[in-house]
Amino acid sequence: MRSIPTRLARMLSVAVFAFALLLPGWTAAAADPGESNDVHVMVPPGDAYNMLEYLKGHNWTPPPGIKGGAVYQNSDGRLPDCAGAGGLWREYDIYPPGPAGRGPERILSCHGGTLVVRDWYTPDHYVTFDPFIWGYNRP
């Protein structure tokens, strides 16, 4: 039998996923659900939310020591269309590079488009993507 916190966490994950499907701009159809690397809904870490807030408050200029602003092509189409709306996906690191390099975590945001597109988090360098859902799953 699972512990109560485990069951509550699972129920919360299902509720967040169900809510995310109702939000405008959500797309899961671009991902093949049969693959292990698809779009899913999990809670991005607090550091990712903090960096996203910083970027939005500083005209998308990352803090010193953090790389960001490069174009992410989304060539596999697993994120919502940004280029079709006149925008570009931009990628931002969450942490400064360490001895082993930049690390796998990134924030992806659509810039300059007319389409309302959610900001996304990838914990594993573009293998999976999690949407930021403000006010509902912030740690």
TrEMBL record:
InterPro entries recorded: N1-like, Ribonuclease/ribotoxin
Entries under Pfam families matching the protein: Ribonuclease
Superkingdom as given in the UniProt entry: Bacteria
Keywords in alphabetical order: Hydrolase, Nuclease, Signal
A GO term for molecular function: RNA endonuclease activity
First and last residue of the signal peptide: 1-30
Name used for this protein in its record: Uncharacterized protein
Organism: Saccharopolyspora karakumensis
